[in-house]
Specification:
The chain has helices at 32-116, 143-148, 249-252, and strands spanning 11-17, 25-31, 128-131, 163-167, 172-174, 179-185, 192-197, 202-208, 219-220, 225-228, 235-242, 245-247. The protein is α+β, with helices and mostly antiparallel strands and 257 residues long. The chain has a domain at 128-252: Glucose Permease (Domain IIA) (Distorted Sandwich), CATH 2.70.70.10. A hairpin with a 7-residue loop joins strand 1 and strand 2. It is rod-shaped and about 155 Å long. Mean pLDDT is 83; it is low at 134-149.
């Protein structure tokens, strides 16, 4: 007797039971092949998710490492910049100190220069006496005086606060400070003069019966000769203006020795 063996298909039954008052039962028959397919799909999904999660974590860790490296580099750069800033600050402070010192030196030099151009010197190269006099008119004096004197007498101008110096022959009339010869006059039989502008508001005037030995427009230094004193020109009138106002020369002159 032959027996026909038949491959039986295995099926599973899933029952869904409700606890409702009215009992309902539902049977779902699931075949083995379908379960295998569903399980394989779930397995692949889990593997893919795990791989994705791993890749994502590795990428996150790599980015984190790069960020940490960048932070370290930024910190090193910041430390370097702080050090350079301190060095620059020290250099700036040193430069400011040098600049302040230079400005102070320049101010001192400027003050010394201005002081040097103030007419404080004595207008004669040697000893001289001051002649007390008053302004009685023109430089030449009255006509009667001119007839009785071989030389023209220099009369001090009171409005100029002029001082008359009398010096011995061989003495020189000298500039009392550096400056520029603004004007000269040399006229026979009249009073000659030299006017020096010292460039700081001070102007000095030297009147003498002799002939000026400096030229108009020339630069002169303190002590340069303006007139040579001889037998006929022993008197010299000296006056100082400051910004067009006359000052007393005796308050300016520094007499040493």
């Amino acid at each position: 007797m032959s027996t026909n063996l038949r491959k039986r298909k295995i099926t599973y039954t899933v029952m869904i039971v409700s606890d409702a008052p009215v009992a309902n039962h539902r049977k779902i028959h699931v075949r083995t092949g379908a379960l295998a397919v569903v399980g394989f799909v779930l397995f692949v999904a889990v593997i893919c998710y795990a791989v994705y999660t791993t890749i994502t974590m590795l990428g996150t860790m790599d980015r984190s490492d790069r960020q940490i490296e960048q932070l370290v580099q930024l910190k090193e750069l910041n430390d370097q910049l702080v050090s350079e800033n301190e060095t620059l600050g020290s250099r700036v402070a040193s430069l400011e100190e040098n600049l302040n010192q230079r400005q102070a030196q320049e101010h001192e030099l400027l003050a010394a220069h201005e002081e040097a151009y103030i007419p404080r010197g004595f207008p004669m190269s040697g000893k001289a006496q001051i002649r007390e006099d008053t302004d009685q008119g023109e430089d030449a004096g009255d006509a009667d005086d001119a007839e009785h004197n071989e030389t023209i007498k220099i009369v001090a101008k009171e409005e100029w606060k002029e001082v008359i110096f009398v010096a011995a022959q061989g003495t020189k009339v000298v500039a009392t400070a550096p400056g520029t010869v603004k004007e000269t006059r040399a006229a026979e039989g009249e009073i000659s003069y030299v006017i020096i502008d010292h460039g700081n508001g001070y102007v000095t005037t030297y009147r003498n019966q002799g002939t000026p030995i400096v030229e108009e427009g020339s630069e002169v230094v303190k002590g340069v000769a303006l007139f040579l004193v001889g037998e006929d020109n022993t008197e010299t009138g000296y006056s100082i203006r400051k910004d067009d106002s006359y000052v007393d020369p005796m308050e300016m002159i520094e007499i040493k020795g």
